[in-house]
Every structure is written in C-alpha cells, then in structure tokens.
Amino acid sequence: MRIHQVRSFLYRSAIPLAGVALAAVASAAENKVTICHRPPGNPDNVHTLSVGEAAVGAHLRHGDGLGACPTGCGRDPRICDDGDACTVDACDAEAVCHHLPVSGDPVCNFCGDGLAQPLEDCDGQDLKGETCTTVLGPAFAPAGLTCTASCQFDTSQCLPPDPGED
C-alpha cells in the first residue's frame, strides 16, 4: 500500500468511528425525562424512571405516562375509604386522604357542620326556623335565639317583648 492509499483508508475508517464518538457524546448530553413506567406484561409494577428524550416516544406508545408515578391514594384512591358511611372519602392533588362529614343524612349527625340534623336542635346559624317565641312561648320576643357548640338552643339572650311594642 502506498502512503496515499494508507491515508485514504485511515480517513475512511475514522469517519464511522467519529460518528460513534459523536453519538456517544450526544447521548451523554441528552436531556432526561421523568416518566411513569408501566412494564408491558406487568402493568401493576409501575415505577418512576428517568429516560433519554429519544426513548420517550416508545415509552408513551406502550402506555407509560409523563411525570412521576402517583403515590399513596393518588395511585389507588380506595385506600382513603375509612369504612364510615357518614364521611365522604377523597384524595386530593397531593395524594392526601380527607374524610368529610356527610351533611343532610339523618343517620349522620355531625354537630358543627352548619346543617341542623334531626337529632340536633340547631347547628351554627341553622336554627331550623325556630325563634325565642317558638321555643319559649309568646312571653318572649322572637330575636335572641342562638346555637351552642353542642348543637342545642341557647336561650340566654331571649327576652320578653319590649312593653312599648304592640
């Protein structure tokens, strides 16, 4: 082989090697994307992965999702069920369970929910339409009836009518 031929051979051989080297450098610098990986054939084994941008499309095509996998009740809202029929069980955006009282159900009396239930005299501002007059009789003016924190009428501010009133 002459020197010119050797140089030409080396040059032609170096081009593919340079491409491999450039690809390796590019892949090392590639941005990573967080995905929620659902392995094909084992979708219950979800886990969070960080993959190169080039791999995202393939992962999305087989059912993975962008972003971290949900945790806690975000993954399975059923874990919030406390078994209490008198609460509404919910999972918020931060995957935290909440148990809110069921208002209006006569079986569920929640004093303090602002809705007077059948077993309560009142609740907060809900006096069930009652006044001092309806609770204590005509010897008292209507105004003054309030509700205690234990959902019972407080008649301490109920007064007889002003003698000047007709």
List the main descriptive attributes of the protein structure presented here.
single chain; 166 residues; alpha+beta; 4 domains; 3-stranded antiparallel β-sheet; two-stranded antiparallel ribbon; 4 helices; 7 strands; disordered N terminus
Question: How is this structure best described in words?
Answer:
With 166 residues, this protein is α+β, with helices and mostly antiparallel strands. It has four domains: 1-29; 31-69, no CATH class; 76-101, no CATH class; 106-166, no CATH class. Helices cover 27% and strands 17% of the residues. The chain has four helices and seven strands. The chain has helices spanning 3-29, 53-61, 72-75, 132-136; strands at residues 32-37, 47-52, 65-66, 87-91, 97-101, 146-147, 153-154. The strands form three sheets. The chain has a three-stranded antiparallel beta sheet. β4 and β5 (97-101) form a beta hairpin. The protein is rod-shaped, with a radius of gyration of 36 Å. Residues 1-27 have low confidence and may be disordered.
Mean pLDDT: 80
Strand content: 15-25%
Arrangement of strands in the largest sheet = 2-1-3
The low-confidence runs, each spanning 5 or more residues with pLDDT under 50, are 1-27
Helical region count?
4
Roughly what percent helix?
25-40%
| Counted beta strands | 7
Approximate shape: rod-shaped
Biggest β-sheet: count, sense, barrel?
3 strands, antiparallel
Instruction: Report the C-alpha radius of gyration, rounded.
Output: 36 Å
Structural class, please? alpha+beta
End-to-end span in angstroms? 129 Å
Number of domains: 4
Order of helices and strands: HEEHEHEEHEE
